[in-house]
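Continuing from the previous page of notes. For each protein in this section, the sequence appears first, followed by its structure tokens. Read the first protein now.
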Amino acid sequence: MSPSTSIPDLQWAQVLEKPGAQLVYKQIPVPKPGPDEILVKIRYTGVCHTDLHAMKGDWPLERKMPLVGGHEGAGIVVAKGELVNKENDFQIGDKAGIKWLNGACLACEMCMQSDEPLCPNPQLSGYTVDGTFQQYTIGKAAMASKIPDSVALDATAPILCAGITVYKGLKESGARPGQSVAIVGAGGGLGSLAVQYAKAMGLRIVAIDSGDEKKDMCEQLGAEAFIDFSKSKDVVADVKAATPSGMGAHAVILLAVAEKPFQQATEYVRSHGSVVAIGLPGNAFLKAPVFSTVVRMINIKGSYVGNRQDGVEALNFFARGLIKAPFKTAALKDLPKIFELMEQGKIAGRYVLEVPE
């Protein structure tokens, strides 16, 4: 391991000590990077709805325990393993991002096809390995993101998961410039970024969410129409009417955290359109009538996190000033309060936690 300046033995972290427990803000040992890993001193970390699922354990995916959550960490490389020494690898002092996909085997069929998010043996930040709700975090150098020197770390944090995820979903939808996309959950952390990526990609946006604060934000970010599902008497009809042809959206991006929107999307996507499921409400199911799905040639698919190249592209959009992640800042010790607001649906945009030095 080659370190930079002095690295402490202990650090502050938000720890889930056992299933069903409350988070504990405590000191734990600073990890040491393996041969192909980097140690990142986290300065800022975003808070994603996935982190809430990780804390509650409501996904059919085994968690490590005790667990440090978080997977949108932006910071500085302070140590690295001996194999991280090539010219294009990380150097001490580089800005780096730790993402949901912390590591992959890079040898299976999926990894060999640049589908490393589909690796059968992944390492997932804040779920199967400790994540970014701590001062120092380990990541595989091959999977970490290089952050341009020109961009601020706090604003970059949400791009590392939310930004990359929605950018990948928009690519998977097949929607082309000039076509319309309906974004469900457009006022949330992922949605606020999806609106901007969609605009930057030349798409026309129908935003679906609730509340005046989210309406104002979506319209400011580039949505041509906003459907408030809490006030609408007929969401399907309103979405169709908001699309340029009145035939429905060419693509639907589902970022909702409840099941109903997933059942509704095929009703307002146009024929030959695509419904892309990204949000992961616990214990939910996708259902669609077989007849209309077949005769209207509707494409229903899932989209997971992006691969390494998707990450590079998503960060490039951001570095060029095309994406400005709406976020509010809080302290790492305030994470439990942020989770409470998230469960209540009271967060417009995203929270980014400042990690103490």
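Done with the first. The second protein uses the same format. Note its length before scrolling.
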Amino acid sequence: MSVAYTVAFLNAFISTVVLHVSGQIDIICEGFKTISERISYYGSSGQTVGMLIERHNKVITFSKNLDKLFSFMALMQVFWNTLAICVLGLLIVTSIHNAAGVILARAVFAYCNIMMEIFIYCFAGEYLSHKSKSLGNAGYESLWYHMSPNQTRNILFFIMRSQKQLTITAGGMTNLSLEAFTSIMKASGSYISVLNAMY
């Protein structure tokens, strides 16, 4: 039970931190929208682009620290959960052939829980990556052509810098995304069929 609570706490913590970073990205996008509205109504930017760029730098630093913190944990989760999915899949296949209903129900429940755990990590990485793409769009959609040349240059650098997506990686080897989730599930299915053939 303590292991289950610890894993649930870590999953909730990762989701909360990713949602926090996404909220900061939304604030930056809203800041560019506010600048654009002020330019169109009042003819001046009011809020400086420099403050938004500084906030973007903090988001990038926070995201890198988040990746450093969870990279090894995510790698271990992906590795051990893939192994557990293979074993549970084999258990499900053998219990279907042996008509063991109680074992089948427990194995399916455990299989769904482990699959959901991997999905949370991969979805968090996908969501963060998707939100980071919106930063460049927000900078481009601002009324940069009505700003001073200095602010326009800053927005250009902001757009160039936001092209590098913020991600969560598994051990620095692969980005956690929905594509990674499908590859994990495909690999697990292949391992299950090999184990079933050997069994």
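What the second structure shows: The first strand starts at residue 169 and ends at 170. The mean pLDDT is 84. We return to this in next week's lecture.
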